[in-house]
Amino acid sequence: PRRFCLYPELSEDLVGSHPPGAHSLVAVSVGYFLEDFVDMLCNQKLHQSWELLFHHSVVIICFGIAVLLHQYVGFALVALLVEINSIFLHLRQILLMANMAHTACYRLNSIINLGTYVVFRIATLAWMTHWLFLNRQNVPPATYAVGTVGMAIMTPMNIILFYRLLRSDFFK
User: Which residues form the TLC domain (predicted)?
Assistant: First the structure.
């Protein structure tokens, strides 16, 4: 995105600029990801949750850096757009657990899930990768390395999950 409607300063500076409350939102998100990480460790088998545990580890590290340094909060805020799709991913799981896979509600959610997946996961991650690449001279090497590794992990994971969703919900 070229401009952010409510806080256009973000389009110019994702490193030092962020709207009021954004730092708190990212800090609370770190807490959520930590809690969810611990819950998965305690209540799920490792072979069922290793991908999410890995995902959460990357997010905790990247968001933790933003919270501790009070920098890159804007970048983390953009990354939180990905979580909009999580609503429909979680609803999909709930519908599957309720044995509602063959209902109109499930079908509608599948379509919305796929649409929000493309917009809020794939497009957002692509934009973030592009931003990181364009701004590599303005980002300290260690932070650039963490961001690059984070994006290099998240992008393939999300493409694989997208393929699994397509295969499961549309190409059975």
Answer: 1-172
